[in-house]
Amino acid sequence: MSPPKLTEPLTRGWTLTDGALSLIASEAWAASRQIYRAVKKTDLHRSSWLSDKGDCSAYLKLENDQVTGSFKARGATHKVLSLELDAVRRGLVTCSSGNHALAFLHACSLLPSLRGPEWSTKPLIYLPKTVSSAKASRLREQGAQLVLHGDDSVEAEREARRAAAERRMTYVSPYNDPQGTIALELLSQLPSGQLDAVFVPVGGGGLISGISSVLAAVRPRVRVIGCQPANSCVMMECVRAGRILDLPSRNTLSDGTAGGVEEGTVTFQPCCELVDDWVTVEEHEIAGAMVGLKEAEGISVEGSAGVSLACFLKTQEQWRGKSVAIVCCGGNISDATYAKAEQLART
């Protein structure tokens, strides 16, 4: 089913601080006028379970219901639909832990119907060897050309960039196209002044840099909380050091946020300047949040969404009487991974 089209810009009637937008926030405005041909405005669900626990109004931004099962459909669609024909004809290549790959493939598949048959392309997708079997199988079923390389997203990205340069293909980054349209939707879905904080899972930083840039431009009083698994909190450590670090990551339920931060990424500066607080959570806390949400409200999310849920639960006493949004960034989870989460949650 085709996603619904919005009848007017999400930004109608808003006043911007300082009379100007950052480059990333500007991109969000541009994306909001293009992407809804291929993605949908996801629901903002008030969670009774989390609201009761925190004695607050806790809302879930349900990106797990996005067209490809995660927020990645937004950035990939905007980037691919912005390419020139020559760039598409040279061939498209990306890398991903899974969700961006699904989104990238979806966006590429829309090119012939939106632009014409000459825009048809069969993209090449690099993934780390640790990608979930559910995500890899779904990509193969859709006819994707897959290359598995390395143990995390940084190793896969380096190889994808090298291969793209060698073959003169067009490389599409999994995170350097920030996802600011989520913030635009949040502000349109909650009455003005009724949002105090947003909890955002962080890997390469595309999601949080987009959200924080838009909020800084429109609602700077809203606090932005960066959420990472303790087993792979590379971006947080880079921010604390003030530079990109080459740090190891351990296995985590949050495979969508696992791995390092690439040198030169546009997301690092917003993470340094616009993220108000950082919270990390252990694997049993991620598992408990995932299982708790499924049992309480029947909503199934993947590990990276479990991270933002767990970070709220860890800090819930700070938000009594407040209104918070928690970004449930994806719902692409295998039965085996959920079974592992259930086991961890009960130990």
Give structural notes.
- The protein is globular, with a radius of gyration of 19 Å.
- It contains 14 helices and ten strands.
- The protein folds into two domains: 17-71 and 177-345, 3-Layer(aba) Sandwich (Rossmann fold); 72-172, 3-Layer(aba) Sandwich (Rossmann fold).
- A six-stranded mixed beta sheet has the order 1-2-10-7-8-9, sandwiched between helices.
- The chain is an alpha/beta fold and 347 residues long.
H/E series, N to C?
A: HEHEHHEHEHEHEHEHEHHEHHEH
Structural class: alpha/beta
CATH architecture of the largest domain: 3-Layer(aba) Sandwich
* Spans where pLDDT lies below 50 across 5 or more residues: 1-21
Shape: globular
Count the helices. How many? 14
When the domains are counted, the total is: 2
> Largest beta sheet: what is the strand line-up?
1-2-10-7-8-9
Helix share of residues?
A: 40-55%
Tell me the fraction of residues in β-strands, as a range: 5-15%
The CATH topology of the largest domain is Rossmann fold
* Biggest beta sheet summary: 6 strands, mixed
Report Rg. 19 Å
GO molecular function, one term: threonine deaminase activity
Cofactor: pyridoxal 5'-phosphate
Keywords: Lyase, Pyridoxal phosphate
Pfam family, one: PALP
